[in-house]
């Protein structure tokens, strides 16, 4: 409505509505360990973003995940949480692949549910369970510090990282 008018212009009252809230499916970006040795540790790092429009209030979400049978969850930030519109949160899940797991590809599923709409974003990732490395021989069996050592065996990671540690002092191989 016009409040006043004159040679200097018009004064009127304006009321702005907050806009329409549009609830949307959350987005997920998943980073996971692509290869994990049997008996080794793996991790899933998940970024969840609330895609609701800016005029919405905080929304509740639920995070769930499925690991293959017998895999052990060591740490999980699964459960419910709230996010402001366009806010992103990082969640972490760590697990251990138990002894006896068949080497090869295995699926991990991660689901984020928008608890107000029931909309679900589910994604899967393939994790390759690698056979546990087996040492056959360490040569030489005894040597002074700085001597090159040759380790032979099976199931080393030819294109990746192989961690081998020696304890302080002498090490004797049989």
């Amino acid at each position: 409505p016009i409040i006043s008018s004159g040679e200097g212009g018009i004064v009127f009252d304006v009321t702005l509505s907050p806009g329409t809230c549009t609830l949307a499916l959350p987005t997920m970006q998943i980073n996971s360990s692509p290869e994990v040795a049997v008996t080794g540790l793996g991790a899933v790092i998940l970024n969840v973003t609330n895609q609701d429009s800016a005029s919405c209030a905080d929304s509740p979400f639920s995070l769930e995940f499925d690991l293959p049978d017998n895999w052990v969850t060591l740490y999980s930030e699964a459960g419910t949480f709230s996010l402001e519109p366009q806010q992103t949160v990082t969640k972490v899940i760590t697990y251990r692949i138990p002894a006896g797991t068949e080497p090869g590809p295995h699926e991990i599923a991660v689901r984020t549910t928008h608890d107000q709409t029931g909309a679900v974003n589910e994604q899967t990732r393939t994790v390759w369970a690698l056979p546990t490395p087996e040492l056959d021989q360490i040569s030489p069996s005894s040597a002074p510090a700085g001597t090159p050592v040759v380790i032979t065996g099976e199931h080393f990671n030819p294109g990746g990282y192989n961690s081998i540690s020696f304890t302080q002092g002498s090490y004797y191989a049989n």
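Residues 70 and 83 are 32 Å apart (CA to CA). The longest strand covers residues 104-114.
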